[in-house]
Amino acid sequence: MRRFIVAGNWKMNKTVEDAKTLAREVVDQVAGVENVDVVLCPTYTSLSAVNEVVKGTSVGLGGQNMHWEAEGAYTGEISPAMLLTTGCQYVILGHSERRTYFGETDATVNQRFRAAVAAGLTPIVCVGETLEERQSEVTEQVVRRQVSGAFESVESGDAGVSIVAYEPVWAIGTGLTATPEQAEEVHAIIRDELSKLYGEGLAGKIRIQYGGSVKPGNAADLFSQPNIDGGLIGGAALDAESFAGIVKAAG
User: Fold this and answer.
1) Is 23 helix (H, G, I), strand (E, B) or coil?
2) Counting beta carbons within 10 angstroms of the beta carbon of residue 73, is it exposed (0 to 12), middle (13 to 18) or buried (19 or more)?
3) Beta carbons of 33 and 251 less than 8 angstroms apart
4) How is residue 166 annotated by DSSP?
5) Per-residue pLDDT for 174 more than 90?
6) Longest distance between any two alpha carbons in the chain, whole Å
7) What superfamily does domain 4-250 belong to in CATH?
8) What is the pTM of this model?
């Protein structure tokens, strides 16, 4: 039985003080929820402050991105060790906004993936198709390519601790949501691709989140699907009550 995981991606929102306030509210509202891993992913500038709030609670901490090198002339980038020193246990990799706006590719996601697991971080690897790709009926090819590219040369032990997040690009921040059936169809494809890479046993243990305009009102239906193991939440994660409602739907 896979344990549900709900992570909040705060993106480029919240000052340090605002982040601390939101984190406190989330910790209070999800207290007592069992069988769900809860993760907050604030901006890098707020990681240490949020860590002070969630430390000793059931809520985990994650970064929104990281570079694959340990150090060097990479202006504006963050290394795995830097995330670890802020208290991070998780890191989001290959989010569609990183791919769209900052030129990330399957190859660079793979480099980040291998660096993350080598450092002891749990990667949340994002995959998903654009609206044009869905309309062109190439969703399966795109998602299989992204999964196989991200996991290339990743040993089974490292793959087993990772998390995949299916985020249809057309449903991020648009208010559009894949139906539970649409989401489940792609989650099943992802698990099948993982089975081809690592066998059904290990693929059956890897958690796959759904992300894309998840709200308290639709979370339970999404999470009831057999291959959906939680959510990577964007907009709704910026409101403690909404985020907690999604967490409770998973629990």
Assistant:
1) helix
2) exposed
3) yes
4) E
5) no
6) 48
7) Aldolase class I (3.20.20.70)
8) 0.96
